[in-house]
Amino acid sequence: MELDPKYDHYDYPTTAPVAKPGHPGHLTEAQQAQVHQLRLLLESEGYTKRLDTLTLLRFLRARKFDVNLAKKMFVDTEKWRKTILYAGQPLKIDGRTIELDEEIAKWDQDGSFKKKVSKWYPQYYHKTDKDGRPVYIEQLGKIDLTAMKNEGIEYEHMLTNLAVEYEKMADPRLPACSRKAGQLLETSCTIMDFNGVGFSNARQVFGYIQEASGMSQNYYPERLGRMYLINTNWLFTGVWRMVRPLLDPVTVEKIHVLGGNYQKELLSQIPAENLPKEFGGSCQCEGGCALSNQGPWCDPEFTRPAWWEKKGDVIENEPTEIGTGADATATAGTTVTEGAEATAPAPAAA
Fold this sequence. Notes:
By secondary structure, this protein is α/β, with parallel strands linked by helices. It contains 13 helices and nine strands.
């Protein structure tokens, strides 16, 4: 895989562990050319951030290597990062419009927001699975949006937190996991616990899941590795029966609906010492697993400052360097479908 010296400054492995066409380190000549095409198109419109090869490949895979569709998805994402929308309006907190790049480093620096939310909606990253990916857990049956609102936590806070945590999964969590595993890891292993979801709270649970899935599907493509849905009941089964035919088969293969008999399958993917005891593992972090944030991203041997912790990394694109983009446009419509994965509706982030 060709790397671009201008944008690709990785200090972790860049080859995907599974040799699938369209994945890093396993590109066809056409796919490599489409990376260049997409980058040229975006440069010609003035974009300078997030033009590294791994990022562009995720957008290309999400749109089955249709360069024009991948470009649209990327541009839509950059616009959204500038102004996150909620109910069709710019998302504001205390009268302040949220711009994601500026918010990441400032959000919940003392951990007080996470601690408060955890009482009413436990959602957290916790160690890694057997492939080295970060494990992400949500306990959906405990969602109580009314109680959170009574403590001053509005929907706008939850969506901002969701976006910030997607960013922190991308960096520093995944790079740290890649360094420890010795191979590129771009996805998470997710557990969604439906214990306690019933008629009384189904509306707010599925409403929030819809918002979270929309954010991940539209703006954070190709981040779902495996998803385990546990303690599902007949109510979920009915919803799943309607949703499943609408999903890409590649996505469906990643989702495992386990009901109440889930421990054996979870432990086949997640080491017992990494899985919280309440889900059949043996981990009992001091102060509780939900607030421990344990993982390679906290280990000095594997973690590095995230991009949003650095200042002054600005790339200047000169007109002579990017031209008009006409050459890029000429073959932008070429499509490669072999081995490409569709966008996966990922879960909410911790």
